[in-house]
Amino acid sequence: MNINKTRFWPTIYLIVVFILLYAPIFYLIFYSFNAGKYMHDFAGFSLRHYRQLFNDARMMEIVFNTFIVALLSSLIATIIGTLGAIGIYGTKNRVMRNVILSLNNVLMVSPDVIIGASFLIFFTMLGIGLGFGSVLMSHIAFSIPIVVLMVLPKLNEMNYSLLDAAQDLGANSWQVLTRVVLPYITSGIFAGFFMAFTYSLDDFAVTFFVTGNGFSTLSVEIYSRARQGVSLEINALSTLMFLISLILVVGYFMIDSYNSGRKAKKGKLSA
Amino acid sequence: MNKKLFYFIPYTLWLVLFVGAPIILMLLQSFMSIDGQATLANYQIFFGSGTYLRMMFNSVWYAFLITVITLVISFPTALFLNTLRHKDLWLLLIILPTWINLLLKTYAFIGILGHNGSINSFLQFMGFAPQQLLFSNASFLLVAAYIEIPFMILPIFNALAEIDNSLINASYDLGASKWQTLRHVILPLSADGIRAGIQAVFIPSLSLFMITRLIGGNRVITLGTAIEEHFLVTQNWGMGSTIGVVLIIAMIITMFVTRERKKGGNKY
Amino acid sequence: MKQPIIEFKNVVKSYGETQVLKGVDLEIEAGKFYTLLGPSGSGKTTILRLVAGFSSATSGDILFEGKRINDVPANKRRVNTVFQNYALFPNMNVFENVAFGMNLKGTSKAKIKTKVTQLLAMVRLAGYENRNIDELSGGQQQRVAIARALANDPEILLLDEPLSALDYKLRKEMQYELRELQKNLGITFIFVTHDQEEALAMSDWIFVMNEGKILQNGTPVDIYDEPINRFVAEFIGESNIVNGVMLEDYLVSFAGSTFENVDAGMRPNEQVDVVLRPEDLDLTTPENGKLVVTIDAQLFRGDYYEISAHDDNGNEWRIQATNSAQINTRQGLTFDPEDIHIMRFNESEDDFDARLDNYEEVGEMDE
Question: H helices within chain C, ranges in order?
Answer without folding.
Answer: 44-52, 94-105, 109-122, 138-150, 168-185, 196-202, 220-225, 230-235, 349-366
